[in-house]
Each structure stands twice: as structure tokens, then as C-alpha cells.
Design brief:
Layout lengths: L1 E3 L2 E2 L13 E10 L2 H9 L1 E2 L2 E2 L9 E9 L11 E4 L2 E3 L19 E3 L16 E5 L3 E3 L6 H4 L2 H12 L8 E5 L3 H12 L4 E6 L2 H9 L4 E4 L10 E6 L4 H10 E9 L13 H5 L3 E4 L6 H10 L8 E6 L3 H9 L7 E5 L6
Parallel strand pairs: 12-13, 12-15, 13-14, 15-16, 16-17, 18-19
Antiparallel strand pairs: 1-2, 3-6, 3-10, 3-19, 4-5, 6-7, 7-11, 8-9
Helix pairs in contact: 3-4, 3-8, 4-5
Family: Belongs to the zinc-containing alcohol dehydrogenase family.
Cofactor: Zn(2+)
Keywords: Metal-binding, Oxidoreductase, Zinc
Length: about 350
């Protein structure tokens, strides 16, 4: 649980009892995300600020330990992951964005302080979860890989923002866990070639393992490719925008995957106009977690993005490694309970 900036603790709570329409999950694996690090380091993520202690974690998987009243179609012992979003209210959206539930204005998300009371995440031994948010894992997918279905869904949603990727050239700028998963998603969707760029040699090695045909080490002054059809900007660094826009072919598309700052920041954007580029955002996902599980079932190997594994009792050490660029980490995993893999 994060209690404030630089204050994360292992707290003891009573085991939850699943209510009507809920299941009790025995958690096994969780992946540390940038928002977890933001709450830990700053006590806030984006516009969401801690008002109370919060259980972190929205990339989780485990097994069903008990069924609450009224739950059908699931079984005790079943390996599952979680769709971390819960719409608050009637769920109605304007016709222009019908079905794009990721854009609904009021969403409770695992491990988020956006609401008060906050929505606890899944970095715990047990958690009660609404049955509608449960996603069974395919028989061939273990719970460690299952915990990566959520970030893979983010990557698949980003790639899906470009309807026709088949046969096109792609740049992924920023080869952290999400960027490396975007590499895999782009290949999955038929991209002809994918170039990954980053300041970290270890991150670029992960991107190559996930399917990048070429890499650019920006720390060594290697230039971005020229005239790519589609660029995915996954670093979230305003200083990266100018070079990424310049690397995109005239009339091409830039998908903004990395979270940009919520405050004013300098950026070079002239090529957006003169190259007549399409610049679009990508936020979380709708139901691509189901597509992610299908991809995992069909053999997509996401384990190259995992760089470190820690038990829950060493959560602060895990967060420290995940936040330290010098540690060479990619996806840092927490073993939350007795996992079978």
C-alpha cells in the first residue's frame, strides 16, 4: 500500500469476503506500471492525488478462491486475469464515441486515486472482484503471462487506432514495456517492418526480442528512420515529438501512446502541419484484453519484457528497480502468492 510520496508499506488486512456478483481472487502475479511508480514517488498520477492509503496494481492475475452469491460460469481454482475498469453511472456515451468505453468520463480503475474513496488495486494476496471484470485465462496461458494481458491490451488498442497497418512501415519511439508490446502488436497486425528507438540499449534488446527488425540507439546519436508510414510515440517525452514527426512520411500517422505531461512543456510541432500528418491519441483500451488473451493462447510470447521478479514482501525494492533507469529494467513483476507460472 502506498501511504504517500516515498512511503510504501506491506499492510495486513482481513481477507475479503466476496459479495453478491463477486469472486474472491487469490492473486499470483502483478506487473508494476508507470502509474504505480507515480503514486509511490509523487503521491499522484496525472490529476489523481492520494487522499488515503491505496493498494497499487492493475496488471494482475491469479486464481478464483471463492464465488460470491449469484456468480455462475466461473469455478474455484480457475486461472483468471482482470479487466481493471468499472464504469460508474449508466455508461451512456454520445453517439459519436459509442462503444468507446475507455473514453467514458467516470471510470474506477484498479489501483487508482481518481475517486474518493480510492479504488484499491490487486497487489495483495486476495481481492474481491466483480465477476464482470474477470477474464478466464486460456488453458495454455499461465498466470504470470496472464498478468501481462492488460498492458498488451493497451498496445493492441494503440495499434488498432490505425485501421490498416498491414504491409506498412512502423516506428516505435520508446521501448519500455508498453513500447515493446506495441512492437509485438504491430507485427501481429501485419506491419511490414518495425523500427524501435530508445535511449537504453537494454530496452532495445527487449524490443528486438518482441519483433523489432531494426533499432536506433538514441544515446549513441543514431538517427530515427525516414518516412515511416506510422509512428507510435511511446516515450511520453515532449522533446521526442519533433524528431518523431520529422521521421513520419508526409501524409502519415502518429499515434501518441506515451502519456504527455499535464502541464505546459516545450515541443517542436511544425512538421505536423507542413507534412500534413494525422496525430491521434490512444488511451487504455476497450475490450482488447480479450484479443490479448487470444494472442497469448495462439503463441505470442510476452516473457521477453519481464526483466525482474520480486516477492510481495520486497515491493519497495521492486518499485525502486522499476523506477531506476540505470537498473536496466523492463517489466518488473511481483509474485503476490503461490504461483504456478
Amino acid at each position: 500500500m502506498v501511504h504517500g510520496p516515498d512511503d510504501v508499506r506491506i499492510d495486513e488486512r482481513a481477507r475479503p469476503v466476496p459479495g453478491e456478483g463477486e469472486v474472491l481472487m487469490a492473486m499470483e502475479w502483478g506487473g508494476i506500471c508507470g502509474s504505480d511508480l507515480a503514486y509511490w514517488k509523487r503521491g499522484a498520477s496525472g490529476t489523481a492525488t492520494l487522499a488515503h492509503p491505496l493498494v497499487l496494481g492493475h496488471e494482475v492475475a491469479g486464481r478464483i478462491a471463492a464465488l460470491g452469491p449469484g456468480v455462475t460460469g466461473l469455478a474455484e481454482g480457475q486461472p483468471v486475469t482482470v479487466h481493471p475498469a468499472e464504469l460508474v453511472g449508466d455508461g451512456a456515451l454520445p453517439s459519436a464515441i459509442a462503444g468507446r468505453t475507455n473514453l467514458y468520463p467516470h471510470i474506477r480503475y484498479f489501483g487508482s486515486a481518481a475517486f474518493d474513496p480510492h479504488t484499491d488495486g490487486g497487489f495483495s494476496e486476495y481481492r474481491a472482484v466483480r465477476a464482470e471484470q474477470i477474464r478466464p485465462l486460456p488453458e495454455s496461458v499461465g498466470t504470470e503471462a496472464g498478468a501481462l494481458a492488460e498492458p498488451l491490451a493497451v498496445a493492441l488498442h494503440a495499434v488498432g487506432r490505425v485501421p490498416a497497418l498491414q504491409g506498412r512501415t512502423v516506428l516505435v519511439n520508446g521501448a519500455g514495456p508498453i513500447g515493446s508490446l506495441v512492437v509485438a502488436a504491430a507485427r501481429l497486425r501485419g506491419a511490414a517492418s518495425v523500427v524501435a528507438a530508445d535511449l537504453s540499449a537494454s530496452s532495445l534488446a527487449v524490443a528486438r526480442a518482441m519483433g523489432a527488425g531494426a533499432t536506433r540507439d538514441l544515446s549513441r546519436g543514431e538517427p530515427l528512420p525516414e518516412d515511416v508510414d506510422v509512428a507510435f510515440e511511446a516515450s511520453g517525452a515532449p522533446s521526442a515529438l519533433g524528431p518523431v514527426l520529422r521521421a513520419t512520411a508526409r501524409g502519415g500517422t502518429v499515434v501518441q501512446v506515451g502519456n504527455l505531461p499535464g502541464t505546459a512543456a516545450p515541443a517542436t510541432l511544425g512538421d505536423l502541419v507542413t507534412r500534413e500528418l494525422t496525430w491521434i491519441g490512444s488511451y487504455r483500451f476497450v475490450d482488447e484484453i480479450d484479443t490479448a488473451l487470444t494472442a497469448l493462447r495462439d503463441g505470442l510470447d510476452v516473457t521477453p519484457v519481464i526483466s525482474h521478479r520480486f516477492p510481495l514482501t520486497r515491493a519497495e525494492e521492486a518499485l525502486t528497480v522499476a523506477a531506476d533507469p540505470a537498473a536496466g529494467s523492463s517489466k518488473v513483476m511481483l509474485r503476490l502468492g503461490e504461483a504456478e507460472g
